[in-house]
Design goal:
The structure is a homodimer.
Chain A: H1 2-9, E1 15-20, E2 23-26, E3 31-34, E4 36-40, E5 43-48, E6 52-57, E7 62-65, E8 67-72, H2 81-88, E9 93-98, H3 101-107, H4 109-119, E10 125-130, H5 148-154, E11 160-166, H6 169-174, H7 177-188, E12 193-195, H8 202-209, E13 215-216, H9 222-230, E14 234-238, H10 246-249, E15 261-264, H11 270-275, H12 279-288, H13 293-300, H14 302-308, E16 324-327, E17 335-340, E18 343-347, E19 350-351, E20 386-391, E21 400-405, E22 408-409, E23 412-413, E24 420-426, E25 435-441, E26 448-452, E27 461-465, H15 468-481, E28 484-489, E29 496-499, H16 511-527, H17 538-541, E30 551-554, E31 557-560, E32 565-566
Helix pairs in contact in A: 3-4, 5-7, 12-13
């Protein structure tokens, strides 16, 4: 094996591919250099003067190491791994560290296996982190539990790259035995553990770090970044669809600390990936915000490789894996060529790989198990006239608890004359028949219902509306297609549905088709009054996330996040 | 295990040790910060406000991560691992990457095992690299061969940290199968491979790097450093006794490339370690040469840890191993305290550890196997009157070939009236009876003989002199004590000897005793005329190193390094 590379490097044998007249970023010295880049098999074998079997003229372009997304939930794209890869690889991303936390909440270990096998169908290098916090809380029903024992058993397996973001930081700080079992399993296997510790500071942060957690993507200001960096954490600059801190945080990158930053997207929708891009857009955004282009590239490549121990990745140098992104310049980052393992898979902007046929095992399909529902299932009878409503705030997933005056008539609250909607979370994994019911304020939708089977983190079926019949229509329609997004206008015959046929989370449709259909459904939702600042479906998907303040709805009922306990709707 | 640390970090349990009022270097951000440093067991658990069972006031001092010597041949100190550790640990060094290349040339695998076990007797963390090039050339006799098969067999063992500097770079570039077997074994085991590639450049360097070699400590100028860095090598700034490039090369460290430098000593004598220091002296020297103190510390700590994958080492941060060097300031680097694995082992300059009893297995003793020699064995009869002499140059181990006029009388060259000496390399491992004989010019010694059983890299017994009887006395005296350094003045009864009783390379004596005795012997050698610029014994030790130009002497006779072939003494 080595001989083949050495023979090519010294020109005893011909190189497979040579990028001629190349300008490239040297991430080791922070410089832009020139030289032919010679490739043999899946490796770069030399930089200098070379001839090859195939030669590509790189005049005017800049060769970069392939980009690494240090933390992503692929499911949040609402595309399968194949669909996701078909959007991000042409953007220059060659490796992602993926935490399949969402599908694991629906399908457990089967879901993780699905992500792994589906990814193998793509040119993207997908490293699978074992989700650490499934379920997210003990107060709700999800599709599967990943126990400390499960993690101990699987952590040594080759396909497990590390332990996913440890969101349950209170358990770590409390020294909870099951939390520590998971972390110790990762350390025994010598594998990295990702963090998630918004605003954690001082001795609590010290305690969290003593669990061997090394990254954070939740930083919000200079002091938090400085403390976390100084205590050894890698800080991920996040460039997701809704949660973004790259633009604001990249101003804290200095010559002295730059080596400890990485880039991630965490959660990024198909439409953003398609229209704006992936890490390429993060680079563009960072440079526009004032970060030096070479530093930005280093953060998105070498740093991530070092952080995660990805050997021979993240640089343009001899013996490195030939994962390359070739861009127009270090400002616009328009990707012209992508090489993966030495093969040209994007050429002059043209995608040369195909991800079909898609991997579609039965065990990730038909994951919505609910009884047939009727309008009466959405009745909400209150004893009193003062009730707690979940108040949404545009641009944030943090909600408030607002006490409202409502009347009950014929065993159901009267919404007419209020700006309230009903909200329902329908357990969809185990046929418990659980329906959590609540009131919602500030969403601005009128005349029907809309719902989705993505609802963090347990991914039950969540529906909002002002018409019980429409809410039942939406729920039943989603059950029929195995999950998705649906909208029903009161009085219409059928709901409009976009299936998310994989786990009720991801669409196996072609990305562009999925995006086009979504845009139509979003436009319709907007026309029915969804307020600006809200994402008609994905803002809904966060109304059951019991780890973000303040008031949320679970399949078991209303939940007070501040007290971390169930709460009654009657005020 | 984690729980104990977390409980201490969050102050549920008491910390073992707290360094109060500490100022410390944050190598992640390149900053100096303040805060109590809390230790539990062998780990740092927190930085902030802490109380501990024992508290040390660090007012006015600066806490640094323990220093890492990235590449050292401990044998070159002429002390055993215990003696070496007793000198370097009080200087703040807590980890060394050791290549036991010298003892391996004498005792093979047994020698490596000895270094490992003797090191366990010390507080120093000694990581053993498997020597890659034993013997150094096929033209001479040494004590053992470490084959590709040997390396394949052992590389997976826990005690082997990686593959030692691959000096035989022509073999790598040529694609020699045994060389590649060694390298592939290291890669299969996921272990690092050190390089040694003086002046290697262009496609030859590319080829060498395709073997997966990642470090170099032989750089001599800016262009070489820049090329090697840009191609992914870590550059070690070397601060040895004779070979030093730290002072001149540290001016090439920039904010952009600093992360890719490390520090090493390679070969450093006991006297230098005792009088000047170890990595602390490298830091002092670097700062005096203009390098920023925090950057210098980062190079000597975090960078080496990253380069070699030393997890949780090289920083003052939660969950990091509590290996700490506490200094007066970032200019003088006088070490006041050393903590190793959380224990104070140097306190206010006082050494709190003991390395006796020393590990002394029989298999590294009595390694000098030669027949009893007489004056006649040192006769050198020439056919003609023009002979090649090895010409030494002060301050360099590079020799020249000088053709001299000499007469032969009674079967022996006549040295009287010339400035020539005789040189003899006596095979001492296998009792072959081989004696290589030659002429030496420029050494400046008169009236006897001196010799040593350290002679790179095969470590045969090497003797110089102008008196055959004295040369025999020296050789026989060294055989008697199992190797060492010896001097005989013509006419005296006995030779003066300092034993190097371990492998003929290292002294098991107390370091200060050894240094004192050595100084006397060196003074005597100097009084007998050894030229300034030469090290009486160690300059001699390099006259058999067949990989350094131009003319050398092996046990098999004179060797032309440029032609890489034996050569006749007759000109």
């Amino acid at each position: 094996m080595l001989k083949k590379l050495i023979d090519a490097a010294i020109c005893r044998n011909e190189c497979d591919i040579v990028l001629k007249n190349a300008q490239y970023v040297d991430v080791f010295c922070g410089a832009v250099r020139k030289g032919d880049i010679a490739i043999k098999g899946n490796r770069i074998v030399g930089i200098g003067e070379y001839k090859g079997e195939r030669e590509y003229d790189m005049s005017g372009l800049t060769v970069l190491p392939g980009f690494i997304d240090a933390h992503v939930h692929i499911e949040s794209s609402q595309l399968t791994p194949e669909g996701f890869a078909s959007l991000v690889v042409p953007r220059g991303t060659t490796t992602v560290i993926a935490d399949p936390h969402e599908i694991a909440n629906v399908c457990g270990a089967d879901g993780i296996e699905y992500m792994l096998l589906a990814s193998k169908n793509t040119p993207l290098d997908v490293r699978i982190m074992m989700p650490s916090c499934v379920p997210a809380t003990p107060f709700e029903n999800n599709g599967a539990t990943i126990s400390g024992e499960d993690i101990s058993r699987s952590m040594g397996e080759d396909y497990v790259f590390g332990l996913g973001e440890f969101m349950n930081y209170p358990a770590v700080i409390a020294g909870d035995s099951e939390a520590l079992e998971k972390l110790e399993a990762a350390h025994s296997a010598g594998k990295p553990c990702d963090g998630h510790a918004p605003s954690l500071t001082g001795n609590e942060l010290n305690a969290y770090l003593c669990a061997g957690i090394t990254t954070d993507h939740e930083c919000s200001d200079a002091a938090e970044i400085e403390e976390k960096l100084s205590k050894g954490m890698y800080i991920a600059l996040r460039h997701g669809s809704s949660a973004r801190n790259l633009q604001s945080n990249c101003k804290y990158v200095t010559a002295g600390n730059a080596r400890r930053f990485i880039m991630c997207t965490d959660d990024r929708h198909a439409a953003d990936l398609s229209e704006k891009g992936h890490i390429d857009d993060a680079l563009r955004t960072a440079v526009a915000a004032g970060l030096d282009g070479v530093t930005a590239v280093t953060i998105a490549t070498l740093n991530a490789a070092e952080c995660y121990g990805l050997k021979w990745r993240g640089a343009v140098a001899p013996n490195y894996i030939a994962d390359l992104a070739v861009v127009d310049n270090l400002k616009d980052f328009n990707v012209k060529y992508v090489f993966k393992n030495g093969s040209p898979i994007v050429r002059n902007g043209r995608v040369m790989f195909d991800v079909s046929p898609r991997y579609m095992p039965r065990y990730v399909q038909n994951t919505v198990h609910i009884p047939e529902l009727s309008a009466d299932d959405f009745k909400l009878a209150l004893r009193g006239e003062r009730a707690k409503a979940i108040k949404v705030n545009g641009g944030s997933i943090v909600t408030d608890c607002e006490v409202c005056s409502v009347k009950t008539q014929d065993g159901d609250v009267v919404l007419g004359g209020t700006d309230l909607l009903k909200l329902a979370v329908i357990e969809r994994h185990k046929l418990t028949g659980n329906i959590g019911r609540g009131l919602l304020k500030g969403y601005g939708f009128k005349g029907g219902a809309l719902g989705i089977t993505v609802s963090h983190d347990s991914h039950n079926l969540i529906v909002l509306g002002d018409d019980n019949g429409s809410m039942a229509e939406v729920a039943n329609a989603l059950a029929k297609v195995g999950g998705g997004m649906a909208l029903h206008a009161a009085g219409r015959k059928e709901a409009r549905v976009i299936p998310l046929d994989v786990g009720g989370l991801m669409s196996s449709d072609k990305p562009q088709e999925f995006i086009k259909k979504s845009q139509k459904l979003y436009a319709l939702a907007r026309s029915m009054g969804v307020n600006e600042g809200l994402d008609a479906f994905l803002s809904l998907a966060f109304l059951s996330l019991a780890v973000v303040p303040h008031l949320k709805l679970l399949d078991t009922g209303l939940f007070d996040v501040d007290k971390f306990a169930p709460t009654d709707i009657e005020a």
